[in-house]
Amino acid sequence: MRRDDASAVDPAIDEDDRPLRRGWSTGACAAAAARAATQALLGGGFPESVEIELPRGLRSVFELAETAMSGVSARVAVRKDAGDDPDVTHGALIVAEVCRAAPGAGIVFRAGEGVGMVTRPGLPIPVGEPSITPAPRQYISQAVSSIAEAAGVPVDFEITLSVPGGKRLAEKTMNARLGIIGGLSILGTTGVVIPYSCGAWIASIHRGVDVARAAALPHIAATTGRTSEAGTRALYGLPEQALIEMGDFAGGLLKYVRNHPVPRLTIGGGFAKIAKLAAGHLDLHSRRSALDINALATQLGDLGAAPETVARASAVESGGALLEIARQAGLPIADRVAHDACAVVRQTLGSAMISSTGMVDVVVFDRAGRLIGRAGA
Fold first, then answer.
1. Distance in angstroms (rounded) separating the CA atoms of residues 182 and 116
2. pTM of the predicted protein model
């Protein structure tokens, strides 16, 4: 999945305190396109723009990028504007083609070009369905129903959603790992894209856990980046489905697993990220948590480093530099960090999760992907 949705609608601010421009999710664009296409299909013609109602009372107006009419269907495309968010779907066309369905069918969703299909259980959409998440299904249906009810016709429509080029764009998302094959997901809990929101990333972490649990995987691993993911996967021989890219959101992963236990959990990451976790930080982003060099230098002293070595380590400005000092001195600082991080993980997961599995471990890798520290199961 990608970051094209948000769990809140608070304005985002950039480094210069300039309000960042919000955007609209694929789901919101699809609702606008479906509403306009339904209006045309029922004889009302294509409007120049269309207004839709989104969750939380929000309303927005969308311009139509493309329109087409055939004998039995109407097709509308809306170009997605993600605002100031670096969304992979920014600028993509979101297309809805609407035709009448059999009496009593209600609203039926189909996947067109570039929209993925769900192939694994665990997601909120059943296997075999287009990857159009529940909230967009609801407000797309509402947008179409309002047009049909105003025209006095039954709400029986087939809606095919497409994203030209979506299959290629999906390669930049986590869809394939979640079992969403063939393209993108149509997302948007609120319909609004909050720039640089972490809500959608955390949601994708949760869906990864859900899919792993539904597949009854005996062991999953959550890692901070690609290097640690590759190292962890090779270390344990894990399938791709068992890997979760948690990034900086250790708290988002651990708090969810606390309530959705798994048989075994490995946390993997680089030295600096795991050192932050060891210090009790659950958000590992550099803007929201700092690496405590002095504390790490003190730990070198606890491991037997000479006072001059501790002093030299206290003066460095990066975890990598301190790690090199520890390596030269032959001191297992990465093991110590892994041990402390494992304690934080266990504490965050809580006694219920630990007593039910007891299988938690932490592994630490250097920048070259070499295993340098581990603790736990």
1. 4
2. 0.78
